[in-house]
Design goal:
The structure is a single chain. The chain is an alpha+beta fold. It has two domains: 136 residues, Diaminopimelate Epimerase, Chain A, domain 1; 158 residues, Roll (Diaminopimelate Epimerase, Chain A, domain 1). Helices cover 21% and strands 39% of the residues. The chain contains six helices and 19 strands. It has a 17-stranded mixed beta sheet that branches. Strand 4 and strand 5 form a beta hairpin. Helix 3 packs antiparallel against helix 5. It is globular and about 55 Å long.
Length: 302
């Protein structure tokens, strides 16, 4: 029988049992891919992360991330949550001449630092890849059917539906009201058809009450990856910030900050902070940040 230590954290929250829970296995050693997938299914969280020594000299750790059904190349809350565990449990120290923790992931290198955001204490902050944009060329009536809504009038008619990736692609669907957002129920058979056009099965309907306030409320669904609904999605947060500065042309200052609210429908309210850096109209950096709390630790034995 072998033993593997694990930690569980709540990410993108300052309140226990809110935010997005994550299991972190810090010393997986000889675990096979099949066993890692079984452990992730056993944990039954949106993601479980496994920390390995790096294969690239510029990285501090190699991170593998599993949903209950798939390994994925990148996700936001596992990066932030794992960085918290490594920096608080003696695996890494930010304060000894090291200002950034570098992860090696399936999409490449991701850096984590400590930054202060408006309205928040100092947070662990990851720098995501620069955004890639694509217009959604499908039928808006099909989007209404996808979300289980009643008519196209519930979509924000003056805002475009886009596919955006800052490491993982999401179908970004602006809605007219939070009442519509609360009623969203994703139709899986329609999602299969929409994904052919969108190139992704991850769906992110959202509401912007006032673009100048910098607040977005969202729900994120990735059912084909074993995540029916996610309480907080760091990989989508960079997409929201990129959408805001591009669609609303909020690029007059060199940096813009946004707050993403998510998880209320699941009873796990979350707040994610986003900072977009600009040179002229061009996005030159995407930062996503949040708080983390450790809520459990234990040992897997099998």
């Amino acid at each position: 029988m072998k033993s593997y230590k694990f930690f569980q954290v709540d990410v993108f929250t300052e309140t226990p049992f809110a935010g997005n829970p994550l299991a972190v296995i810090t010393e997986p050693e000889d675990l096979s891919e099949g066993l890692m997938q079984k452990i992730a299914r056993e944990m039954h969280l949106s993601e479980t992360s496994f920390v390995f020594p790096p294969e690239r000299p510029e990285a501090d750790f190699r991170l593998r991330i599993f949903t209950p059904t798939h390994e994925i190349p990148f996700a936001g809350h596992p990066v932030i949550g794992t960085a918290h565990i490594l920096s608080t449990e003696g695996y890494f120290e930010f304060d000894r001449g090291k200002t950034e923790l570098v992860f090696e992931l399936g999409i490449g290198k991701i850096e984590v630092t400590r930054r202060r955001f408006s309205g928040a204490e100092e947070c662990l902050t990851m720098r995501q890849p620069l955004p890639k944009f694509a217009d959604y060329g499908g039928d808006r009536k099909q989007i209404v059917e996808l979300l289980g809504l009643s008519s196209t009038s519930e979509l924000a008619e003056d805002l475009p539906i886009k596919v955006i990736s800052t490491g993982s692609p999401f179908l970004m669907i602006p809605l007219r009201s939070e009442e519509s957002l609360k009623r969203v129920k994703v139709n899986l058979s329609v999602l299969e058809r929409v994904s052919v056009v969108a190139g992704t099965t991850a769906v992110a309907p959202f509401v912007v009450d006032h673009p100048g306030a910098g607040e977005v409320t969202t729900r994120v669904f990735a059912p084909f990856f074993g995540v029916p609904e996610d309480p907080a999605t760091g990989s989508a947060a960079g997409c929201f910030g990129s959408y805001m500065v591009t669609v609303f042309r909020l690029g007059k200052s060199k940096t813009r900050e946004f707050t993403i609210n998510q998880g209320a429908e699941l009873g796990r309210p979350s707040r994610i902070y986003v900072r977009i850096h600009l040179e002229g109209k061009n996005i030159v950096a995407v930062e996503v940040a949040g708080s983390v709390l450790k809520v459990a630790e234990g040992v897997l034995k099998f």
